[in-house]
Amino acid sequence: MPAPDPSTQDPADTGRYGAPRRLWRALDRHRPPGTDTVTRGWRSPLRGPWLTSVYGLALLVTLPLVVVTGLLDYAAYAPRFGQAFPTDVGWLRLPYFDWPTRPAWLFRLTQGLHVGLGIVIVPVVLAKLWSVIPKLFDWPPARSVAQVLERLSLLLLVGGILFQIATGLLNIQYAYVFGFDFYTAHYFGAWVFTAALVVHVVLKLPRLVTALRSRSPGAELRTPVAATRPEPPDPDGLVPARPGPPTVGRRGALALVGGGSLLLAALTVGQSFDGPLRRTAWLLPRGQDPGGGPNGFPVNRSVAAAGVRPEETGAAWRLTLRGGGTTATLDRAALLAMPQHTARLPIACVEGWSTVQTWTGVRLRDLAALAGVPEPASAHVRSLERTGLFRQATLQGNQVRDPDSLLALRVNGADLSADHGFPARIIVPALPGVHCTKWVSGIDFRADG
């Protein structure tokens, strides 16, 4: 084969970067079918750096809250006891610390924010994707190694947030159709998304700031549809080459997205309130109408689903306490004869709903003293429940010693119902609801943690 004629070569194709440039040009000549149609078919004059950056700023404020509250919720399950899922996360393990019992509404706040914000930002995420979707079909995908890294981070960012939202929404709807473990996928997926988000923010933050400063928000909100004009061409190619006529102004686009988020918030926030407002939480299937009476509040797992038989919770039921070389066995009458303590405490579920009720029972620290461990470092609680991830739980020392931590026997002045854990259940301030073990059969108090 004859050597290439130097006189016909583009100087840009020689030298150190010649091979990569030839690669980008070869890719450009072999465009996949349909890419031109996609990129030219999205002609909205609203699309451009300013509107994209407005949506991006909203996500930049909310997404870190969703990520941080999700990681805090994982920490609330006390992963050092092997009861946070997934149990083995390798070098992604969070630092161990004692989850606090105060304020008592802490887990209610973190889990409510995690689920609530995750739902509310869905319209913003979709709007942000709409504003940049032609760029996802650019060909060639990149024209330099730096752009390859940028596009890879974008792929992980878009794929990550769609995966987290989709699986999260299915989980709170109890639609377990994944074919994989939700907890494991959601945890590792969160780290992949977070890494991609950090890279994307580092790369794009200067342009976001520049774009936001390029136009007055007040002026945009006052501009009618007829006066809406495309933005000037931008380096990222967000502005369409041949924009069509506007059908809605930027004010209308922001109102549509904001209104969608407000609607989702209105259909979700009732999950955190008792009374009639709970019935407005149409997006949450659990406990919209939990019934009336003292036990009329949501249930995560019913006695039937737990497989607990009536004879196991009847007159033959006994609570076994162990610790310090001492074993004590108590029936419900003996527990009711002990000093009773009443506390008004919330209980919050991983699906995002919460409720506040008045609980009465025996302090856990009194039971620890009875078992011969006056200063417990931890307590292992066992349930009559035979199956499920949460049929047992380990409590931290501070959780056992808190004066409002109870083995609850009654709620709102009445005996616990079977679905709420009769004859006895655990209630601890700021503890995830699934660790407020129901149908308790035994507690092992440990002095050494």
Automatic annotation (TrEMBL):
SUPFAM superfamilies attached here? Oxidoreductase molybdopterin-binding domain (SSF56524), Transmembrane di-heme cytochromes (SSF81342)
Question: Which Pfam families does this entry report, sorted A to Z?
Answer: Oxidored_molyb
Q: Where is this region: Disordered?
A: 220-243
What are the entry keywords? Membrane, Transmembrane, Transmembrane helix
- Oxidoreductase molybdopterin-binding domain ranges (all copies): 310-446
Q: Which domain of life is it from?
A: Bacteria
User: Does the keyword section mention Membrane?
Assistant: yes
- The membrane-spanning stretches of this chain are 50-72, 113-133, 154-176, 182-203, 252-270
Q: Key word Transmembrane present in the record?
A: yes
Q: Which InterPro entries match?
A: Di-haem_cyt_TM, Mopterin_OxRdtase_euk, OxRdtase_Mopterin-bd_dom, OxRdtase_Mopterin-bd_sf
PANTHER family for this protein: BLL0505 PROTEIN (PTHR43032:SF2), PROTEIN-METHIONINE-SULFOXIDE REDUCTASE (PTHR43032)
Q: What is this protein called?
A: Molybdopterin-dependent oxidoreductase
